[in-house]
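Quick note —
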Amino acid sequence: MKLIITSFVIICLLSCAVSHNPLRSTFRSLQRGKLKDDTSYVYTLPYEKGKRYRMVQGYFSRFTHKERAALDFKMKRGTIVCAAREGVVVRVKEDGDRGGLRKKYRPYGNNIVIQHADGTRAGYWHFRFNGAMVQAGDTVKAGQPIGYSGKTGYTALPHLHFLVWRFDMAGHWQQVPTRFHSTAGDHYLRAFRRYKRP
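Predicted structure written out below.
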């Protein structure tokens, strides 16, 4: 009983910590439809056509995304991950063989990074060991399989962590909000909802 209460207190403390990143309110307004956007690129959901997955964590959420405009899709190990946009693969790491909810596991996180024509990059994290289907230098199309999901790196459960960013003129990275095309239309995704790729 004491362990359950302690765990509950820790979760409550974590959930009370909210990001003060100035982008947070802008991203949330886009998600809620308070800001209208019909000019940004519309991404393909990063999994196979006809599949539906739940987004378990969204932009600047209160658990591990407090400073990240990232999206987490719950996926079983071995689920096929697809490119959300066409581009060139600039990084592949697939030698990580462990994971868990401790920061010591962060270096083991397998990932693939794809650069797009407009200079933005998309990162896909937590692939299984030897789970990449592409190599650095490959050109990929939107919807093309790129690897298999897993639970490597800093993570509590198997999932796909997705993030888009660009570099400004000074070389600082800036996070980019992403709209996706789903069977429900084109919109910014919200946590705890399931989205189906048409």
